[in-house]
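Task: encode each sequence below as structure tokens.

Item 1
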Amino acid sequence: MRTPTSQYVGRLAVAGLFTFAALTLSACKDESSPTSDTPADQRQTVEPTADAPARYDRKDERFTRAPVHPAVAAAPKPDAILPPDASCVSAQCHATFASSSFVHAPVAAQTCFLCHEQETPETGPHVYPLMRSGNDTCTFCHAVTGTRRHTHEAILTVGCVACHDPHAAPTKNLIRETSLDRLCARCHDLPLQSFAHEPFVQGNCTICHEPHESDSRALLRGGDGPEFCFTCHDNLKQRLDQSDQVHTPVRDDCAGCHDPHTSSSRALLHQPVTQTCYSCHPLLQDTVEHSRETHMAATQDRACANCHDPHASNVQPLLAQREDKLCLTCHDRNQTTPDGRAIPQIATALARPFLHGPIRLGECAPCHNPHGSDNPSILRTAFPDTFYASFEFDNYALCFTCHDSALVTSEKTASLTGFRDHDRNLHYVHVHRDERGRTCKTCHNIHGSDLPNHIADSVPFEGSAWAMPIQYAKRADGGSCTPGCHENKTYTRNANEVNHAP
């Protein structure tokens, strides 16, 4: 060796100081990068601006410096052994090693022989083999691999020099490109789409990924799957912990629904929201796409997410809020279907004191299928929608899912209903007819009423716009009504009392 042992040790110490300084600087926080101090809602999906693709051409002026050596013509390669005091870095030789924005500490200290062997007559003039082979040259000082489960493939197949220049480079950490994202794009070509994760669009790949090794797949920082996402989206984790119902994919892997980099769909979904949901719920897709009556909320605007929270909820099945309140976000006002049909608001009926049983419990879905149906008003099963109808059991299938069919099929009863004259079943009298049978909506307001048993104040008479008054009055042992132009009719459950029931 040309350099005495003591001088070699001295150079090694100097190189160590430069290396420590370089590593310290590289660990300093880049104030332009999002950190855990940034609010979570500012670290999520962003819509790239028109000039966003130019991010690969950014250069941070804070990390540049003036050249140390002026540019001159390069000297020819030496054809003889150099003298002991010759420098590798001069205006004519390897000038860029000193003029680059970032220089490897041993190079800056001109201790080239920490990595290279000296030239000898046997190797020939100006030949400096590495003292160690492959990555061993780097890992002799930089312990960046071999301690975790997953290692960056580029390190294993190409080596450290795939990403880093061992001498000098225009960007900190001696990476071979003018920006980190441009370096990653050499192997990971992810064209920018309409929507992008904020770290991706800002080019801050290492906010999410370890560049060398990690215990998590995809070299993620801070855990696998949802646990990694929660390092930024901690507000979502809190909501999951406080919710009774959690969507199974959220517990399994956020990437099942979301692309972590960029997407053509909102919320970074792999597909539009309906297709994302249908990939796991094909039966619902069939209902929505092939039903005669389709709920507009299931297809328009945010589609499934109009009603369901895709992550967690305290209302089954992952509803954004209790059913009746959720439905009133749209049905508190008149609606018009795409084919021009009018759907009147139901807020007034739901504010009345006497409500249909399911609505008292805050439920609409026992009667309505919120995704679609072959029945009018997206009812789950058949229900007569007219004033008069001949009685057929199947026509009242919806009512009979809760009410005993004997309510209208038994001519006599002492217990099935309070609407009876002695033991004469007045539901049977009104409904169970071959012609001009009165349907449920002849007397009842299906959602709610100001009268007990949700009896209606008035109902639209068959085939007209006339609101026929019912004028129902309830008594302790019966009641009375004066429908339309008819005389007053009364009924009593007291067998000893004479009445005027129809």
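Item 2
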Amino acid sequence: MSDTLDEISCPACHKPMKKIYLVNQKFNVDICLEGCGGLFLDNRELKKIDENMEDIDPILEQIKDREFQEVDSSVKRTCPMCGHIMVKNYSSHLGKVQIDECYNCGGKFFDHGELIKLREEFATENDRINAFNSYAKSILNAANSEFKEKKTLGSMINDIIKNYKEFN
């Protein structure tokens, strides 16, 4: 979904969000300045501000020295763009930053401070990709060593399904 000039309500505290224009990236972000300090990004905007080298000074200037109300981050949130329920996901395999994502329009909502934490996880997109690839390889290597004693593919699949059900 593309950037809109329409006012939207914060998914966390339901107060009006203010549009902040990022000159270098050429798009608006929506910030809840009168409530919880949350930040909403439309589809594809995160890639343009997820690294520390990318300029977010206009955002930082707006939130500087402000107090924001606490919100319950466990409550399900509704996307302010399309009205669908947002899903909580971790920003990476590290599991440090949990954000709300809309699977319908691609919007993302960050509670106050979460964008900064996400930007601190990895210096660059390549670092993020390399870290995930290493993590995935370690999982596959562990699975290979655990299942190499199995005699059939079926018994391996049964163990994987059993472990998955126990994990979830």
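Check on item 2: The chain has two domains: 18-121, 125-167. Strands lie at 18-22, 27-31, 39-41, 87-90, 98-101, 108-110.
End of task.
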